[in-house]
Design goal:
The chain is mainly α and about 140 residues long. The protein has seven helices and two strands; from the N terminus they run H-H-H-E-E-H-H-H-H. It has a domain of about 90 residues: Orthogonal Bundle (Arc Repressor Mutant, subunit A), CATH 1.10.10.
Length: about 140
């Protein structure tokens, strides 16, 4: 599994929001400045996260983005699945019907095990876990 720029930047943006959780909405340009990402690109990434119920948008003068749930309730698997889709390294792991040799394939179990391991790590890691690993958010927004 390789995480694309979309998945990487979306995770960084979500971690930025987690570091500011409870302080109100955060402007997209502020996140972009801290993370070194284009505001326009970041806006595009936030829309699927909003649709998935991971972030909320506040409009108006004090508008911006905020986490829709507590950082301890948002798992990396939630973010990566929204941005990347399945973590399966090959398509036949999720849909054996795409390959006529799925039943007899010698490597399919390895790919299945890889997906399970990736999912286990991503499912067991929350935004709060990452903030705690890094220390107090006042020390800056960590890069992941």
């Amino acid at each position: 599994m390789k995480v694309s720029t979309r998945g990487h930047y979306a995770t960084r943006a979500m971690l930025d929001l987690a570091a500011h959780y409870g302080r109100g909405p955060v402007l997209i340009r502020d996140i972009a400045d801290r993370q070194g990402v284009s505001s326009r690109y970041l806006e595009q990434l936030m829309m699927p996260l909003k649709a998935a119920g991971l972030v909320r948008v506040a409009r108006g003068a004090r508008g911006g983005f905020a986490l829709a749930r507590q950082p301890s309730e948002i798992r990396l698997l939630d973010i990566i699945t929204v941005m990347e889709g399945s973590t399966a390294p090959v398509e036949c792991v999720d849909d054996p019907g795409v390959c006529s040799q799925s039943d007899a394939c010698l490597t399919r179990q390895v790919w299945t095990d890889m997906k399970a391991a990736a999912d286990r790590v991503l499912r067991s890691t929350t935004l709060q876990d990452l903030l705690q690993r890094q220390g107090e958010p006042a020390r800056g927004i960590p890069c992941i």
